Amino acid sequence: MKAVRKIGWVLLGILGVLLLVGLIIVQTLKPDYSGEKPMDNLNAEVTVTYDPYGIPHIAATEETDAFRALGYVHAQDRLWQMELLRRIATGGLSEVFGKDMLPTDKFFLSLGIDDASVQAAARLDPESRTAILSQAYLDGINQFIEEGPTPVEFLLTGLEKKPYTIEDIYNTVGYMAFSFAMAHKTDPLLTVIKDSLGPEYLSDLEINSSPNTVWIRNYKGEEVSSEAAVISVTTEALSKLPVPQFIGSNSWVIGPQKTKSG
Asked: Does residue 245 lie in a domain region?
């Protein structure tokens, strides 16, 4: 009986230590929403106010200062998500999540987003407004990476925090553009439906450019249709993404008290 009681106290003590360590980690790593932070290369004071929803509102007299603060705030709240986003175009997700992500990495590498980003960054005029504001934003991100707490996801995966570059911005925007390009996903599917079931199945969608369009039916051999292959590859690649696509940003809802019918 005494042995059982002693084991119980030991387990209780271990649980208490684990809870204490967990509390310390949470309190140490959580974003800092109050106080003052010295930032490099600011031209004037910048104020960041958080509303009840946790959304930051930045007030600055200089545009570059606002972007620098935005980069810091983004990194403080979303550094792990940002890390995953910049890895999509470069095919670096499998480094984090293992070989199951290889099809996704290969798919996005085949789109050439990263190659286009490198070329776009090389062509960018360093004196242009885009370059100056982008660099200010990157400076804010990288300052937090240098001096801010490391998100627990980096500790769990063993990944090292690395500075952000202009190519990372282009790669994220490239992934966003892919998210908006619904034709990559819908056109092959609609083609398969039309060829398999007939164009009448698509009549309600009104997707034909002209009612007088004459469809030319291709010879159907034994080979797998390219459209079906595209659907399969795209679906597999997107189904394993650790972050959602940029969909739904332009949607809005009106409350019943704002409408005539209620």
From this structure: no
The answer as to whether 215 is a domain residue is no
> Between 55 and 237, whose confidence is greater?
55
Q: Could you report the per-residue pLDDT of 186-216, keeping only the tens digit for each?
A: 777 777 777 778 777 777 766 655 556 565 6
Which residues does residue 48 pair with via DSSP β-bridges, in sequence order? 58
Range of the domain at 26: 21-180
116-128 per-position pLDDT tens digit: 999 999 999 999 9
Locate 257 and state its tokens.
Answer: 């008290």
Find the CATH number of the domain harbouring 87: 1.10.439.10
CB 159 within 8 A of CB 96: yes
Count of C-beta atoms within a 10 Å radius of residue 31: 16
Q: How far apart are CA 20 and CA 25, in angstroms?
A: 9
Residue 212 lies in a domain: no
For 64-78, letters b (16+ CB in 10 Å) and e give bbbbbbbbbbbbbbe
Rounded Cα gap, residues 164 and 139, in angstroms: 8
Indicate whether 50 belongs to any domain. yes
Q: How many CA atoms lie within 13 A of 26 on its CB side?
A: 6
What is the amino acid identity at position 67? F
If one counts the domains in the chain, the total is: 1
Q: Evaluate if residue 64 carries a pLDDT over 60.
A: yes
